[in-house]
Model the fold of this input.
Amino acid sequence: MTQQTHSFQAEVAQLLHLVTHSLYSNKEIFLRELISNASDACDKLRFEALNDAGLYEDAPNLEVRLAFDKDAKTLTITDNGIGMSAQEAIDHLGTIAKSGTRDFMGRLSGDQKQDAQLIGQFGVGFYSGFIVADKITVESRRAGMKADEGVRWTSGGTGDFLTETITRAERGTRVVLHLREDALEYANGWKLRELVRKYSDHISLPILLEKEEWKDGENDQPGAMVKTGEWETINQATALWTRPKKDVSDEQYGEFYKAISHDFEPPLTWTHNRVEGSTEYTQLLYLPGKAPHDLWNRDRKAGLKLYVKRVFIMDDAEALLPSYLRFVKGVVDSADLPLNVSRELLQESRDVKAIREGNTRRVLAMLEDLAKHDPLSAPAEGGDGVTDVVSEEDKAKAGKYSQFYAEFGAVLKEGLGEDFANRERIAKLLRFASTTTDSVSVSFADYKARMKDGQEAIYYITADTLAAAKNSPQLEVFRKKGIEVLLMSDRVDEWALGFFQEFDGTPLQSVAKGAVDLGKLQDEEEKKAAEAAAEAFKPLLERLKATLKEKAEDVRVTTRLVDSPACLVSPDDGMSLQLARLLRQAGQPAPATKPVLEVNAEHALVKKLDASAHFDDLAHILFDQALLAEGGLPEDPAAYVKRVNALLQG
Ligand code: ADP
Done:
C-alpha cells in the first residue's frame, strides 16, 4: 500500500501555526466548521446523484454522526456524503481553496491576540479542527469508487501530512479528532448537543449522537453515563428557510447568514418569505454589514444559493438578482425549476425572471424600510414642530441605512442604468452630500423640499473626490445665492446620471455643463450686467480664443464665478469633462472634447489681462489653473511651472 508524506502549502502552514498557537476563548467553532463541511459533502452527493442514482449505493439517507470516546480522547464526525479520492484529500486538505479563508489570511495583523479573535469569529474550515486536536485522522472514500480506493489522511497540524490507501466499505468521510488535554470537554454529549443547537441547527440533514443513559455504579463504584447503542437526532434537521419565520430566532438567522456568507460580521437585516402564485419559491435574503474587498472586481462571484425543492443546486446563482444588488446574500428554494437546471438554463428561464423580479422588489422594500427608520437618511417630512416619539423599531434600525449606504450606495446607483422598471424607487434610495450638508444623507426629495422659489432644476456637480467637488469654483455663484448643490464623487455617478435626467418632474442639471442658466433665480439686473460684460469683453475674448485655440473650444464671460478668475465647463452638447476623464483612466476611448473656458469679468486678474505685457503666459496660466481647480492636470505641467515662475520673477 502506498504511503506518502506531503508538505502543507505555505499559507496552510502559517494558518495552522496560528490556529494552534493562539490562546483564545472561542475554541468551539471547530464543530460548526466540520459539520458544515459534512453537510456540504452531502449536498454535493445529492447533486451528483441527480444524474447517477447509483452513487447512493445502499445508503440513501444522508446524515452526520457525532461520536466521542472519553477514554481514547477522541471526537469523530462522520458523514455519508460525496467523500474524497486520495488526490482530492491531498489537494483539499493540504491547500487553502476557499476564497474566504484566503481573505481571512489577508486580514491577519500578526498580533496574536487580535488574530485569534478574528479566527474565533470567522472559522477557518477544516483546519480549525487543530484548535482542539493535536492530531487529526481523516478516512474517506469517494462515492462511486471502489472500497479499496479509500484514503487515510493523518496530520499533527505542523509541517506535513501523511496519506495512505485504505479499504473503506462506507462512502463518505470520517474525521477523527485526537483531542488536546485542554479540549477534553468536547468528548461530552451535553456539550455537543449545546454546540449543535447553537451553531448547526439550520443544517438540513440530521445530526445524530449516540444516546447515553445513567448507570449507577456497583460495589460502591461511582455511576457513569453509558452508551445505549441507539442514535438520536440532535438538531431540527429542517432547512432553516423552510421553517416558519416565527420559529426562527434572530440568532439562528444570524448564524445561518455567517454559514452561507463566510462573513465575519452579523448581517444588517434580512427578509424571509414564501412566495406563492404562478412561480413558487422561498427567499431568504440578507443585507451584509460590510462590503467585501472585491466588490468591484468583475470576476468576483456573487449571487444566491439556489435550491430546488430543498436539493442544493448551486452557489453564486447570479441570475437570481440584478447585478446592482450583487451584495445581497441568501438562499432561493424554487418549487418549479427542474433539478438538472444549468447556469445557461437559468439565464433563459421565465421562472427565474419572476424570481429575480420578486427578489429585487423585496430587497428594495428592505432598503426603503431601513431608510425610513434611519434619522439621518429619512426623507424630510413636513415639520410640525413636535419631536417624534422614537419607536423601538426606529431604535433597532437607527443608523443601518447610513451604514448600508456607505458600503454599497455606489453599487446601488448602477441600478439607474440597469433596472429601468425600478428606476424611481432606486432614485429615492440614493443619498448625497451637498453644499449644505457634509454627510452623505441628502435625498432628491430632501433637496426638492429645500429648493428656492423659482428654482427649476436639481443642481449637482461631479468630481473625483468630495473635497474637489466641494471646492470647485463652479459652485461660487450657487453659494452666493444660497442654492444647494448635490456633491457627487463616486465613479459611477456620471454614468448613472446619464440614465436619470429628472426626479419627480424636476430636471437634473450639472453645474459644470453648458452656460450657467439660473433661470428665474437670476434677476433682470444681473442678466443685463452679464450681457453688457459679454459685449465689453468681446475683444478680450477673441484674443483669448485665438491664444488658446488648441485647448479651449470656446471662451466666454460667466456669471457663475465669484472669487475665481476662470473655470472650465463642458460644452452644452458634449460629453462631460469628468466622464471623459474617467473613460480615459479606464483605458477606454473618449472623445477629445475640448472644454469651454469661462472667465469672471469681475475678477481683477481678468480685468488687467488685456493690458498685460504677458498676455500669452497669463492666458495659458488662467486655463491651466482652471484645470487644476477641478482636479485635472495641465497637459504640459513643466510649461505651466515655467510660465508661473517667469511671472513670479516679474
Ligand atoms: P471549504 O469547506 O470552505 O472549502 P475547508 O478547508 O473546510 O474549506 O475544506 C476544504 C475542502 O476539503 C472542501 O472544499 C472539500 O472539498 C473538502 N472537504 C472537507 N471536508 C470534507 C468532507 N467531510 N467530505 C468531503 N470533502 C470534504
User: Anything to note?
Assistant: The chain has 23 helices and 22 strands.
